[in-house]
Design brief:
PQQD, alpha+beta, 38% helix, two-stranded antiparallel sheet, PqqD_sf, 3-stranded antiparallel β-sheet, 3 helices, globular, Arc Repressor Mutant, subunit A
């Protein structure tokens, strides 16, 4: 990451290898460490778009387009989600 608290718009997150992923009717079920997490809606999209090639801004653009929301709102939401999950181990920077 950029060294600042939380992710920055130009940071490039990627999904951590080795996480078990199962598609379920409500979204994606992630298994990592000794925990499980269900990602649905925008959270699922953010996870799928965090491919190590897209910046946080690129991911936010995808969320804004998919959900028809303002780009600035999408960027704030994506940065909050990634920041909230920074210590979870599901993303790497």
């Amino acid at each position: 990451m950029s060294g600042l608290p939380g992710p920055g718009p130009l940071d490039v997150p990627r999904r951590t290898l080795g996480i078990r992923i199962r598609r379920v009717p409500d979204g994606l079920l992630l298994g990592y460490r000794d925990q499980a997490m269900l990602l649905d809606g925008p959270a699922e999209l953010i996870y799928r778009l965090a491919d190590g090639a897209r910046t946080v801004t690129d991911i936010a653009d995808g969320v804004a387009e998919e959900y028809g929301i303002d780009r600035a709102e999408a960027l704030a939401d994506v940065m909050e989600f990634l920041g909230d999950h920074d210590d979870s181990g599901i993303f790497q920077w």
